[in-house]
Amino acid sequence: MTSETRAGFVALIGEPNAGKSTLLNRMVGAKVSIVTHKVQTTRARIRGVCMEGQSQIVFVDTPGLFRPRRRLDRAMVAAAWGGAADADIIVLLVEAHRGLTEGVQAIIDNLKDKIPSAATVALAVNKIDKVKAETLLALTAKLNEAFAFSKTFLISAERGYGVDDLREWLAAEIPAGPWFYPEDQIADLPMRMIAAEMTREKLTLRLHEELPYQLTVETEKWEDRPDGSTRIDQVVYVARDGHKGIVLGAKGETIKAIGQQARAEIATFLDRPVHLFLTVKVRPNWLEEAERYSEMGLDFKDGD
């Protein structure tokens, strides 16, 4: 490997639903981060690895920054700022149609307090297809008055507009040095966790009205079989007995449908046949258990 190689960490920060997971997945070219229409779905600091020429960009997809109310919320926000502070470059995503909201202003204020002044912070105005050009110009001017961004990008993570420009700029800006990961590795999360996130996404999409955040999924067993298939046993933890009935559905129809969708997606991701077995268990205090937090890549103490 020659000395021209570059490698660095890039933290994507922003309000919930700003499009961080969509951008990460587009940059990496594979689905490594859960994408739903529900806010606050990204819990762990998922790292996606993107190769651009001789540069290896490692994305830290932080949970959306919001006002925390519960222990889990506080741990997620602490993880987000921890990921930002450790990164070589920070990219703040702002939704074009929502503009400089109170939440964005709070993030900018925190950037001034929590991030060294010498840090490279770029602005990416996302979902630009939702607003007119003059609105965009006014918004970018306003945001750059509020904070001295190193560079501003106008993008649509969903459609791909402007994403190549952002990726090329990041590739040139990260530090020179050896790569952190093998060239073909796209995420540093264990496969067990990625598989659990995929199942949780299907649960969130199906049950977002009834159970927005009161469940988690863990992969209990993982067996690669001689025939080339993989057996995966996962547990869906819910906080109350009533929640168990909602997840199972009448005659188990809901959990069966969710299991089929998750199995298909995990099989595509692993590129092999998958046998997925889901069990639903009630754990009234799972939101207060340190073990559940470490499973999600969060620090239990950050919730204090």
UniProtKB/TrEMBL annotation:
Membrane topology value: Peripheral membrane protein
GO BP annotations listed: ribosomal small subunit assembly
Keyword Thylakoid listed: no
Top-level division of the source organism's lineage: Bacteria
Record carries keyword Chloroplast: no
Residues binding GTP: 14-21, 61-65, 126-129
Compartment(s): Cytoplasm; Cell membrane
InterPro entries hit by this protein: G_ERA_dom, GTP-bd, GTPase_Era-like, KH_dom-like_a/b, KH_dom_type_2, KH_sf_prok-type, P-loop_NTPase, Small_GTP-bd
Domain Era-type G: 6-176
Location of the region described as G1 in the Swiss-Prot/TrEMBL record: 14-21
UniProt domain KH type-2: residue ranges: 207-284
Single GO term (MF): GTPase activity
HAMAP family: GTPase_Era
Described purpose of this protein according to its UniProt entry: An essential GTPase that binds both GDP and GTP, with rapid nucleotide exchange. Plays a role in 16S rRNA processing and 30S ribosomal subunit biogenesis and possibly also in cell cycle regulation and energy metabolism.
The name this protein goes by in its record: GTPase Era
The organism of origin for this protein: Paragemmobacter kunshanensis
